[in-house]
RNA sequence: GGAGGGGUGGCUGAGCGGUUGAAAGCAGCAGACUUGAAAUCUGCCAUGGGGCUUGUCCUCAUCAGGAGUUCGAAUCUCCUCCCCUCCGCCA
């Protein structure tokens, strides 16, 4: 959510921002609705002020007169009766006028609100302008010693790499057929060492953030209310990406009527960010509590609407996966926010380097940011089994997105109504919306792709990087499903 | 699933038709005392919106949310949501 006041002061900034992000929204309509609403509200408030004044004046009098009416008789009673009626009639006209104006405001309100929720956060000035991911800018590349990204996998390692689909099939780490039988396309089953590698990665990533960087590990619901989805900025724009549990549509088959028995609908979250950010929705935090540093591991659900035909094979684009996610909630300070962004990217680099996976950092361009980000850096891991085929029809290798680090200023916290009191609690300090940031720590099974493909060996086995071995009972190599 | 009890400021908690935007306590902030701290005392301490004469200004809304009754609602009525307790069922 953007600040309506800032929008009023500088609509051009928001128009330009929406244009750069390629998100259509009618800012002029918002300004018009806002103006109409304020005009009506001012009128109503004047009337109400009048009404309140009268009520304050005549209220106690009415009370007194009603009391004496009980004792009065004859003419006296009639006189009091008349006086009471007169007093009570005074605000009637005001009331009539108010009840005429109120529905007009009520009609404007939802329109304005729904439009406001669609206004994207303008990208920062230093974010490169571009239409989509093809305009993203590479800012860094890293590969482990002995592996050069300028050369092919074969030139580096002396043999042609298998794709992760082939590795997974040969080592029996996953079963796509049965996954699809159970749950349809984009579903899979991890088996044996496949499942163990998956769990080892998640556990390693969680421990890394907790033990090395002081993040608090938290479990959060993945089935949440609509509020949490809107608050975190995933709705309304991403509605079609989320699975929807329509509990309010539930019917009791034994009941005579067809009234819904579910109390409210729920949504499956596509990232742990929703739960972590939703935690402090509608709260006023103490400044001393900040920054909050949370890490969660959660199952993520994505409908992948609009991605039909894209990455249909293998573990890359799937409906359900597990992800370790980091979130920082800090003071409303741009420098601090930017510093955290860098740090959070650095944590991921450490993990990737410890796992000996080549990667690059991409500065996303305006068109690739999405509505809620001021800035976003994607981290792509090297996947030897991905990319365009060579003359023999084998993939030449390519980077694939495995992480995404977002900087949101107060966009999310404003929607979530999540503030802190500058200074300390209770004092005369104003409340301000917090800043928030989030970044993937590690998402699997997608991360199994670079892990298996980069560490495969000529004999078809896969070397386990040292950092992961403690989570696999010391195992150094994956040779089959069971070892 | 059955039966009850509740949702009030950062927190605890009173109020149950008439200056109650809300007692009291805790926490916090400022000051006094003190070499400093603690203790003590004094004062201040909800949020959001609108207006212009931008002021130690005026005003509206908010006691879970919505609708209603009333001259007047935190207080009464209805609906929705949420939480808790007991019983039943259950991983």
Distance between the termini: 50 Å
Class of the largest domain, according to the CATH hierarchy?
A: Alpha Beta
How many distinct helices? 14
* Second CATH tier, the architecture of the largest domain: 2-Layer Sandwich
Across the major sheet, the strand order is 1-9-10-11-14-8-7-2
| Secondary-structure element order, N to C | HHHHHEHHHHEEHEEHEEEHEEEHEEEHEE
Query: What structural class is derived from the secondary structure elements?
Result: alpha+beta
The CATH superfamily name of the largest domain is Bira Bifunctional Protein, Domain 2
- Helicity, in percent? 25-40%
Biggest beta sheet attributes? 8 strands, mixed
For the secondary structure, the number of strands is 16
Which descriptor suits the 3D outline?
elongated
Unreliable spans = none
Strand content: 15-25%
State Rg: 30 Å
Number of domains: 2
Average pLDDT score: 90
CATH topology of the largest domain: BirA Bifunctional Protein, domain 2
Structure write-up:
This protein has 483 residues and is α+β, with helices and mostly antiparallel strands. The chain has two domains: 26-116, Helix Hairpins; 133-478, Bira Bifunctional Protein, Domain 2 (BirA Bifunctional Protein, domain 2, 2-Layer Sandwich), CATH 3.30.930.10. Helix content is 40%, strand content 17%. 34% of the residues are buried. The mean pLDDT is 90. It binds one RNA strand of 91 nucleotides through residues 38, 41-42, 44-46, 48-49, 51-52, 54-56, 58-60, 62-63, 84, 87-92, 95, 263-264, 283-286, 419, 421, 423-429, 431.
